[in-house]
Amino acid sequence: MVQGRQSSLWKAGRYIFGCCVTLCVFGLSVAHAQDEPPAAGEQAEEQQEPAAAPVVQKRPELLILPTESVNGKLTRLVPERIDESMRVRLKDDGKVVVMPSFVEIRKKLAGQGVSSAVIYEAEQLYTSGIGLLTAGNNEQAMGAFQRSLELQEQNLADVTNYNILTDTISNLALAYHLMGYDVDSRKKMQQFAHIRPEATLSPDKFPKELIEVFESEQKKIKKAGPGKLVISTETPGAQVFIDGKDRGVTPVTLDDVGFGYHYLVIKDGKGNVHTEQLRVRGKKKEQQVNANLSSAGNVAATSGDEMPVYYTDLLASIKTGEINSVELQPYLAELSKQSGAPYIAWVLVYKTGTNYMAAPFIWRAKDNMLVMVEERKFNMEMTDLVLGVNKMAKSMAVIAQDMPEDNKVTSVTVGAAPVVVATNPVTTTGTTGTTGTTTTTSPVIVTPPSDGTDTTGDQTQTLKPLDPIEEEDPKDSKRRWKYVGIGAAAVAVVGGLVVGGVMLASDDDEQPTTNTDFSAEVSW
After folding, report:
1. For position 384, what pLDDT does the model report?
2. For 497, phi and psi rounded to 5 degrees?
3. Beta bridge partners of 324
4. How does pLDDT run across 360-396, given as a tens digit for each residue?
5. What is the DSSP string of 195-255?
6. Which of 57, 94, 215, 376 is the most buried (most CB within 10 A)?
């Protein structure tokens, strides 16, 4: 009896223990399943996608040219007041970065020991090329090194760091090699050997083929030995530099310049410069170099206060009011390269009636896109300066960020005077019932032919006289006109812009009656 009871207890204990083990195993399985990441293509319903990082738009950097009046017809007071207020407002707005003026940029470069903004740009290209080469962008690196070397060789008088110049040459040789331009690669490596015959090339950077070219040229230079240079100038005392090293004053004889190509720069104390890439024959052969600095045609580096021709020509072109993106592109591109400005902006001011109008423009370097910002009106007393500048600066900041196609222009005339319309009265006679005859006079559009001959009969269109419409809202920034006739044979300008179609217009109170009463011929 006792034994049977014990057996029952044992069985019950085993059952309870088994249940506990099963529950523990199940619990561990569930916990493990919750810790595992969902299978590929599956996602827990309650799990949400991580929020996308906000896109931060880079602020455009604007180099702003001095505000000018069209054809210099206004005193400096008005453009300068608008210019000063606009720069302050754009800086305070914060949507764009207002770069220092070009004058300030050049002074900064001169303070750093770089006398030319061109050399600064060349050094920036060299640095960019190193990064591109490291990243494996060989074609872009080749372009950067080519442009950098070109700028440095064209402005040798301004080069102060020949280590960058020579390193540009060796890296260009490497870029050529990586792009498969074997002949160009060998020539540049030989040129590097001529200037730096004592250098060594790292096998970690340069391939075996280029190292062999360099070492072969080194042996040729050593075998040929130095040449003998006799250098003189019309006026003695000019400083002589070879590959950036000071070699004395003229007249001077140098017998230690190695075989091959070298950079020669001669400067006198009056700012005259002679530069050339000189080939030394070696083997102690004498070579005469007679540099006539007065007619060399090379101008020494300008100081920070002197503006380069491309900059002064750009300002002169803009001031005419004839804005053409194709014609201005070379000047704008050069200014962009030398200042590092991705955007260049300017404002033109002109007088219309009893008000001033300000026409802003923004140019983007990467695609040569020119946009025109909405013109702003200022009263004669400039009492609305703050309000007008605030609106203009706000519009410029928005346009610079988006550069909309709707604002793109290629050729615009700013502040153009209205085109005078030649009119001839045309008398027509008709019969009106029993009242007899009536005579009316209609205005006629006359478009002068391009050759100046008088073919009025073929160029006229008789118009029915129309009543003038009401004037526009005085708050409108555009000039107010009265509508007095339409036609299809004329072309005209309003506020500097041609818009298409034809309209005869007058800003006088009286209806035009003679051929001089029409103030403008408008097409849109």
Report:
1. 92
2. -120, 135
3. 411
4. 999 999 999 999 999 999 998 889 999 999 999 999 9
5. H-TT----TTTS-HHHHHHHHHHHHHHHHH--EEEEEEESSS--EEEETTEEEEESSEEEE
6. 376
Q: What is the DSSP string of 3-62?
A: HHHHHHHHHHHHHHHHHHHHHHHHHHHHHHHHHSPPPTT---TT--PPPPPPP-PPPPEE
C-alpha Rg value of the chain to the nearest Å:
39
C-beta separation of 67 from 349 below 8 A: yes
Phi, psi (degrees; rounded to nearest 5) at 58: -70, 135
H-helix or E-strand containing 309?
A: helix 309-319
Contacts of 160 (CB under 8 A, 6+ apart): 113, 114, 115, 119, 244
Q: Which residue has the tokens 């419409």?
A: 469
Q: Write out pLDDT tens, residues 339-352.
A: 889 999 999 999 99
Give CA–CA dist 107/102, Å, rounded: 9
Chain segment 144-179, per-residue pLDDT in tens: 999 999 989 988 988 989 999 999 999 999 999 999
Pairing of strands 260-267, 239-242: antiparallel
DSSP symbols for 361-379? EEEETTTTEEEEPPPEEEE
Three-state DSSP class for 397? Answer: helix
Positive or negative, the Cα torsion across 50, 51, 55, 56?
negative
d(CA 84, CA 90) in angstroms, rounded, equals 10
Question: Predicted confidence band at 483 (pLDDT cuts at 50, 70, 90)?
Answer: very low
Q: Distance between CA 365 and CA 167 in Å, rounded?
A: 28
Query: CB of 349 within 8 A of CB of 70?
Result: yes
| Alpha-carbon dihedral sign for residues 160, 162, 168, 171 | negative
At residue 133, does pLDDT exceed 70? yes
Q: Which residue has the tokens 């101008």?
A: 299
Average pLDDT over residues 405-418: 84
